[in-house]
Design goal:
It is a single chain. It is built from 21 helices and 13 strands. A five-stranded mixed β-sheet has the order 2-1-3-12-6, sandwiched between helices. A four-stranded mixed β-sheet has the order 8-9-7-10. It has a two-stranded antiparallel ribbon with strand order 4-5. The chain is an alpha/beta fold. It has two domains: 167 residues, D-Maltodextrin-Binding Protein, domain 2, CATH 3.40.190; 194 residues, 3-Layer(aba) Sandwich (D-Maltodextrin-Binding Protein, domain 2), CATH 3.40.190. α2 links the parallel β1 and β2. It binds beta-D-galactopyranose. Beta-D-galactopyranose binds next to loops. It comes from Loktanella salsilacus.
């Protein structure tokens, strides 16, 4: 080996180890059983490097956690790292210069070549600089169904939304709530988004979410969606739960028939020892329009004046994207890896359906990459009002939805 190369590799090793071990506080909202199990894979991998993961879990979901994270950052007491969804949630923090530029880490680890789909890294990139490490692909476009509930009701597990609605009265007769829905507004907006794609079609959904086309909201495809959403509201009566994972538990226990929820729900089924295709079934696109949305989670790293922390942040960013962590974390989380060059060791039948859609390019962006956080909050508020106000009609919510989209950014 040439001397210059030996010197160079020696320098690289020094740079990598000079920081010494650091404690990094990592904030996230992964507090359900399945989520906590998944995040422990990240913590174990980080601790195995000799550094220490200081867990900053916040209960109550993303809508509760994000403002707390932001106030820590702008208040001058930032964590070393924090989870946001892929998309536009960090725009203002980046504009304010509060987040660490990871471009050097991304280049050293070939993120541009390995991260798939490329939209995930695009969502981390502002003015050519990379500010986040994507860790997974989560899709909202799923319904999870309880085999036990349908068996008890004496009807086959539905294969699509129409069958779900047709068989719902049988479940109700058997004392089972057909649709499990938690009380938080993001769950009601999320389920509406899934129904819009599945029942209104990808074109209409894209016009509304990407094109901010209020006329499309008033068009025939979305009219169908609002009506179906009104009917779904009736199917959710009788189960009063708040958190998404409590709704998932009802499906696991067979006290509810189904839940429209992102594929993080699989972490709960897995932890409860339930087997896809036997104990539960899954319908991407509600069995109507098979597509995957490519949302998920990314980690951002607030700027820190301590050089050791900065070095540790970069080391952690690289580790999160590494093949080993991608496999261990995503296998527990119910999500798909963000790199095309790793295989999940053993995937169940639902994850396989997701992988097939991804391979066939049947993907759409997540709404969080298209709509600003402010618009999303307005839609959350509107849909939760509808969900909790029986007197509010589908036509009324449709008009108000169109008004929000007309002024959306
Ligand atoms: C999403 C996040 C998922 C999952 C879910 C429920 O925003 O992307 O990882 O944790 O919230 O907490």
């Amino acid at each position: 080996m040439k001397l210059s190369k030996i010197l160079l590799s020696g320098a690289a090793i020094c740079a990598a180890t000079s920081a010494g071990a650091v404690d990094l506080e990592v904030m996230h909202w992964w507090t359900s059983g399945g989520e906590a199990n998944a995040v422990s894979k990240l913590a174990e991998a980080w601790d195995a490097t000799g550094n220490t993961w200081v867990d900053g879990a916040i209960a109550g979901g993303g809508d509760t956690a994000r403002p707390i994270m932001v106030s820590r950052i702008i208040g001058g007491d930032p964590p070393a790292a924090f989870q946001f969804n892929h998309g536009r949630q960090a725009e203002e923090l980046i504009d304010a210069g509060l987040l660490l530029d990871l471009t050097e880490v991304a280049e050293a680890n070939n993120w541009k070549e390995i991260i798939n789909p490329p939209s995930l890294l695009d969502a981390c990139t502002i003015d050519g600089k990379i500010y986040c490490a994507p860790v997974n692909i989560h899709s909202w476009q799923w319904m999870w169904l309880s085999s036990a509930a349908y068996e008890k009701a004496g009807v086959p597990v539905p294969a699509n939304w129409s069958e779900f609605m047709e068989t719902a009265p049988k479940l109700q007769e058997a004392g089972i709530t057909p649709l499990a829905m938690g009380g938080q507004s993001w769950q009601q907006n999320g389920a509406f988004g899934v129904m819009a794609v599945a029942l209104g079609g990808v074109d209409a959904w894209t016009k509304v979410n990407e094109g901010k086309d209020a006329e499309a909201v008033m068009g025939p495809e979305y009219t169908k969606v609002f009506e179906a959403y009104g009917a779904a509201r009736e199917m959710a009566k009788g189960l009063n739960v708040q958190d998404w994972n409590q709704a998932t538990s009802a499906v696991i226990e067979g006290t509810a028939g189904a839940q429209i929820m992102g594929d993080w729900a699989q972490g709960e089924f897995a932890l409860a020892g339930k087997v896809a295709g036997t104990d539960y079934e899954c319908l991407p696109g509600l069995g109507e329009t098979g597509v995957l949305s490519t949302g998920g989670d990314a980690f951002y790293f607030p700027v820190n004046s301590d050089a050791d922390i900065t070095a540790g942040q970069k080391e952690l960013a690289a580790l999160l994207v590494s093949p080993e962590v991608q496999v261990s974390f995503n296998s527990a989380k119910g999500s798909l890896p963000i790199r095309g060059d790793v295989d999940l060791t053993t995937v169940n039948e639902c994850t396989q359906k997701g992988l097939d859609l991804l391979k066939d390019g049947k993907t759409i962006p997540d709404a969080a990459s298209l709509l600003s956080p402010d618009t999303t909050t307005q839609l959350n508020d509107l849909l939760t009002e509808f969900w909790n106000t029986p007197a509010m009609t589908p036509a009324e919510v449709q008009q108000q939805y169109a008004d929000i989209i007309a002024s959306a950014d």
